[in-house]
Amino acid sequence: MAGAKVTFSLTGWKEMIKAFNEVGVKLDDKDPQIKRAILVPASAMIENARNLAPIAKEVEGKAAKKYPPGTLKRSLIATPGPATQRGVFLVARKRIAPYAPWVEFGTSKMSPHPFFRPAFLQMASTYAADLAPGVKTIIEATMTANAYHPPD
Q1: pLDDT per residue over 4-15, tens digit each?
Q2: Is 60 exposed, middle or buried (0-12, 13-18, 19+ CB in 10 A)?
């Protein structure tokens, strides 16, 4: 007694592998879309660092003109940087506030007033959760663009 013959065929494997490879390429942190996704939590971290940055009120002389109160806060930025660099940059611009490292780490005559490290540590605890929506959007768009569509 011969039974019914069943034929089983899997199609779209090559396309699925290609789609996963494309997702891997898209998740490179040199990609502008990934940089934009990273920039969201990084900008929040910089805003937190601005809130923690001390404002000098006792500046006198030439320094008062060159570095008015709030200069350190204005120097803090998050930027994607050049296309050849990975990730984003979180910096205190040296041309605006060259004294930022001394405020952060202190000197032999001044105790440290950390503002950058506490903001960074606070961001680190929620970084993955803050980054997830942007990465999810990129993955879904890439998978949709490279998905297998069987012929009708």
Answers
A1: 887 766 666 677
A2: exposed
pLDDT value of residue 114: 94
What 3-state DSSP class applies to 89? Answer: strand
Q: What angle do CA 45, 43, 107 make, to 5 degrees?
A: 50
Residue 151 contacts residue 61 (beta carbons within 8 Å):
no
Instruction: Report pLDDT digits (tens) over 58-71.
Output: 666 666 677 778 88
- 78: enclosing H helix or E strand: strand 76-79
Q: Give residue for tokens 């709030």.
A: 70
For residue 69, give both structure tokens: 């109160």
Radius of gyration over alpha carbons of the chain, in Å?
25
pLDDT in tens, 69-101: 888 999 999 999 888 888 889 999 999 999 999
Residue 45 burial (CB < 10 Å; 0-12/13-18/19+)? Answer: buried
Q: In terms of DSSP bridges, do strands 76-79 and 89-92 run parallel, antiparallel, or are they unpaired?
A: antiparallel
116-145 and 13-26 helices, crossing angle to 10°: 150
pTM (two decimals)? 0.72
Closest residue by Cα to residue 27 from 139, 146, 147? 139
